[in-house]
Amino acid sequence: MAITEKLLTTKEAADVLGVSKAFLERDRWAGARIPFIKVGSRSVRYRLSDLTDFIEKQIRTSTSQVA
Questions:
Q1: DSSP 8-state class, residue 40
Q2: Are 9 and 39 in contact (CB under 8 A)?
Q3: What local confidence, expressed as pLDDT, does residue 50 receive?
Q4: What's residue 52's pLDDT?
Q5: CA distance 64 to 49
């Protein structure tokens, strides 16, 4: 399987989502609602398609609507 999608750093992913790097770091620590990829023992990367899927799943029509 060929990789055709650029992997984003935590900073780049945070910019796409409009959140801080710390938000994504906490998300990973707390159980990762936003999928990520471990590259080696320390590097973390995100696929734009995973970020897009996450955003799409957050769409609501009411503030009282739950996931």
A1: T
A2: no
A3: 94
A4: 94
A5: 27
Q: What is the pTM of this model?
A: 0.81
Q: Tens of pLDDT along 11-61?
A: 999 999 999 999 999 999 998 789 999 999 989 999 999 999 999 998 888
The answer to whether 37 touches 45, Cβ cutoff 8 Å, is yes
Tell me which long-range contacts 17-26 makes (C-beta under 8 A, separation of at least 24). 17/51, 17/54, 17/55
Please enumerate in sequence order all residues whose Cβ is within 8 A of that of 7, keeping only pairs 6 or more positions apart, or say none: 37, 39, 45, 46, 47
Given a contact cutoff of 8 angstroms between Cβ atoms, the answer to whether 5 and 48 are in contact is yes
Distance (Å, rounded) from C-alpha 36 to C-alpha 46? 5
Query: Cα–Cα distance between 24 and 37 in angstroms, integer?
Result: 13
